[in-house]
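Subject: Interface between my chains keeps coming out wrong

I've been trying for a while to get a sensible model of this assembly. When I model each chain on its own everything looks fine, but I need the whole thing in one frame so I can look at the contacts. Pasting all components below, labels as-is. Any help appreciated, I'm running out of ideas.
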Amino acid sequence: MIQLITPDRYGAFVGELAEMHRLRYRVFKERLGWDVEVSGDMEIDDFDAYRPAYLLQMDDEDRIQGCVRLLPTTGPTMLRDTFPLLLDGQPAPGSDTIWESSRFGVDLCSRHEKSGRSIARATYELFAGMIEFGLMHQLTDIVTVTDARMERILRRARWPLRRFGPPQAIGNTLAVAGYLEVSPERLMCVREAGDLVGRVMRVTGGDGHHANPSQAIGAAA
Amino acid sequence: MHGIFQAFIDGLVTNGDAQSLRSVLVQAGEALDLTCFAYICLPSRRGDAPELISTYPIEWTDHYLQQSYARLDPVIIEALATPEPFEWGREFLGKGLSKPQHRLLDEAAQFGIRCGFTIPIHDPRGPVAAVTFATEERRATFQRCIEQHRRVLQLMAMYFHAHARRRLTLNRVVDGVALSPRELECLEWAAQGKSAWEIGRLLNISRRTAAFHLDNTKTKFGVRTICQAVAKLAASKAVAE
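Reply #2:
Try treating it as a single job with all components included. I did that and got this:
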């Protein structure tokens, strides 16, 4: 299940946001060894100050297993401000219908669950969530800076990256930037590839309300 | 708590200068009964003054800045050493302190700053910052608040720093192009004839990272060489003067 957190709801999801920054610490600082900004066990960067939307992937017990951050390209973006080299001479996208995704990370809670299957499940749900978010906002594309490994995973999910240019070595990763198409057809492809049935996104929640739809139905009945 | 955090975030977004950033933290602090706090952002260049936003008595902060206390403040030294949030008091800081450090703590105590909870923020490419919630004595209410809201306070400190840094070190626009503070810094050294290797040494970053920032400035200006980028910078300065 995917939880959308928009800036007007940060307060309602303050606990989830803290958990997300901890997950990002585990993924980007501990696992990938990036030189990122940290405080205690949380990771944050400049772009979190621009009121992004976040998608959180949660398991059946509402534990956060993955996240991705989304920002409109009409404002500051990583592609324009941090990695313009990856544009390969093309102008940085700046349009209402194109958003940028960043800080995509998956880290499962307990060791015995870290099977390839559940990692794939969380990853595909996040992809589907990104497209569902895109369709909600009438986007045509999502742009992203990623690496060669992630590009392969995207291809396998049948959501291929349309590159701006060839990959470039940045620090210890081979970075590449490109467009990801937002369309109902792509959503079908990703759902099929990930064996997902129907919508992954839950828009309500937070404050502990509506956290569990079956409970809500039970209470009503 | 939820409403307090939402108001805090909304306030950070709509407020610009140091004074209004302070008022946002004051509001959140009052709601949580943490009225005495300080945000400090240490200078990235030696000799520059730290950025300080606080509710501490002005006589104390003036004195603190004048005496360059940030350099010997045991709380700051601990914050520089570890990104882990920590609680402190005389007993925690008391061991192995120098005479000037004891004097600093005595003086702080006179202004009612005796113990606190400090959240350091470490950015490998930028300055170290810290948010401290201080109190005169270790009261149960203070202790409970810190324990209960530890994670949210950490989140608030991080977001506050992200916003403060953005407002206080805005990108410089040169010839219609927005350069990050780091890119500008590298380009200014290049204008003084320094190589990427030398700039790396000066800024304590790798040659590769310095070259990366310089390449970005070339890309942003749409030029081929560093000489051309330096010329753009020089021309924009001539116009500004």
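Reply #3:
Confirming on my end. Chain A has six helices and eleven strands.
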